[in-house]
């Protein structure tokens, strides 16, 4: 049997571009997977990465650290023999998946409908074999690493994609009737608590999210329609836009013109401070004896159907070292062509964020993520409490796992 162990922590940017595909049959000792809770660890800053700890293989000898990423559409891990895959990380001990060491692994054919729908014409999958069968999970096997993921400072073992496409982890389980296409996360950051948090698959019944906003149906991401941005009591002059909500992005990226307007409004509230730009961050020095974080204005994003999301100074002010603080707002000009809006962990932390894919809406509410939430068990109809966790990077092989999902691979 194959063990998948979840415990989550906070990202990076580039995606891997070449993967083999493997299939796995999902089951659970206790009847059904109608609701699942995944413990969280990490923080939005300075780690900038929330991750899950999973175990793969029969027998399950190793554990892998993978970010939970709502902006990615595939579960994948680095595999043995990977070209340019990192061998060490400043964050964790890295592990490569070895299918030969598992008695139940099998590759999925490149002709399988899953591969043909996921990979573009310029991409290739490396393995051949029988296609997936009823009750299977297909994941990617990383064979070539590109982008920034091979750098030791941010290297991880893979990614667990919770995106909208049919290839994502939750979509595969939902298509087999294992779970509902609904999940939520509550990301705790160190400015507000101790880090870590909660990730749950299923319907959250408490705290209740009172207002939701429609997901944009034509977008391949979890995108919503923005109507306005407020900095304190001031409303920025801008046209409505599409905003991507992505737990796999650390900061908040704004169109260049919006970024300049927002920063001018914030900086005008403290003209006595000396600001300087370092790399892409606007920074300043101050001590708690003179200033307080809450003296800076909150920033509120207003969305369709009157849903609003407020980012507080404790969320967007990042402590670099000593009395040096920097703003987490970023212009998308040099990274995303200057037009994209992306709300990353900086804006999503200290809130319960609900993704109701079945009803095509999402919403959020302020919540102490070091506390718990209540999730409905679809099988029994009962509600159960999910507590927060803060997974330690060093906990790897000795961590007591609160969730064990069994995977059966056939080779």
TrEMBL record:
Span of the signal peptide: none
GO biological process: proteolysis
Domain Peptidase A1: 50-365
Record GO terms (molecular function): aspartic-type endopeptidase activity
Catalytic residues (UniProt): 69, 246
InterPro entries xref list: Aspartic_peptidase_A1 (IPR001461), Aspartic_peptidase_AS (IPR001969), Pepsin-like_plant (IPR034161), PEPTIDASE_A1 (IPR033121), Peptidase_aspartic_dom_sf (IPR021109)
Domain of life of the organism encoding this protein: Eukaryota
PROSITE patterns with a match to the protein in the record: ASP_PROTEASE, PEPTIDASE_A1
CDD domains: pepsin_A_like_plant (cd05476)
Keyword terms: Aspartyl protease, Hydrolase, Protease
Similarity comment text for this entry: Belongs to the peptidase A1 family.
PANTHER family the UniProt entry points to: ASPARTYL PROTEASES (PTHR13683), PEPTIDASE A1 DOMAIN-CONTAINING PROTEIN (PTHR13683:SF840)
Protein name, entry field: Aspartic proteinase 39 isoform X2
Gene, per the UniProt record: LOC108812392
């Amino acid at each position: 049997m194959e063990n998948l162990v979840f415990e989550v922590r906070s990202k990076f940017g580039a995606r891997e571009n070449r993967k083999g595909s493997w299939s796995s049959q999902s089951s659970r000792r206790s009847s059904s997977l109608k609701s699942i809770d995944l413990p969280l660890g990490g923080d939005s800053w300075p780690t900038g990465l929330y991750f899950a700890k999973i175990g793969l293989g029969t027998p399950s000898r190793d554990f892998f650290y993978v970010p939970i990423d709502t902006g990615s559409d595939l579960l994948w891990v680095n595999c043995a023999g990977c070209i340019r895959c990192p061998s060490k990380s400043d964050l964790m001990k890295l592990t490569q998946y070895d299918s030969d060491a598992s008695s139940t692994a099998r590759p999925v054919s490149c002709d399988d409908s899953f591969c043909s729908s996921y990979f573009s014409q310029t991409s290739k999958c490396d393995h051949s074999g029988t296609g997936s069968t009823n009750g299977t999970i297909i994941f990617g096997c990383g064979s070539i690493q590109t982008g920034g993921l091979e750098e030791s400072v941010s290297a991880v073992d893979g990614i667990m994609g919770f995106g909208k496409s049919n290839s994502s982890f939750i979509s595969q389980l939902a298509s087999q009737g294992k779970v509902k296409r609904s999940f939520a996360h509550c990301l705790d950051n160190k400015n507000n608590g101790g880090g870590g948090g909660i990730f749950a698959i299923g319907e959250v019944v408490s705290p209740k999210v009172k207002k939701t906003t429609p997901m944009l149906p034509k977008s391949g991401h979890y995108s919503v329609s923005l109507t306005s941005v407020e900095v304190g009591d001031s409303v920025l002059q801008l046209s409505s836009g599409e905003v991507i909500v992505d737990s796999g992005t650390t900061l908040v990226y704004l169109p260049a013109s919006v970024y300049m307007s927002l920063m001018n409004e914030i900086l005008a509230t403290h003209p006595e401070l000396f600001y300087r730009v370092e790399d892409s961050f606007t920074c300043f020095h101050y001590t708690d004896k003179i200033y307080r974080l809450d003296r800076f204005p909150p920033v509120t994003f207003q969305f369709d159907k009157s849903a609003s999301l407020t980012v507080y100074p404790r969320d967007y002010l990042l402590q670099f070292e000593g009395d040096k603080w920097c703003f987490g707002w970023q212009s998308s000009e040099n990274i995303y062509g200057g037009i994209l809006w992306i709300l990353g962990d900086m804006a999503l932390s200290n809130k319960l964020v609900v993704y109701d894919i079945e009803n095509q809406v999402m919403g959020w509410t302020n919540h102490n993520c070091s506390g718990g939430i209540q999730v409905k068990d679809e099988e029994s109809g009962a509600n159960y409490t999910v507590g927060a966790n803060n997974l330690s990077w060093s906990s790897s092989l000795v961590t007591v796992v609160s969730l064990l999902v069994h995977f059966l691979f056939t080779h």
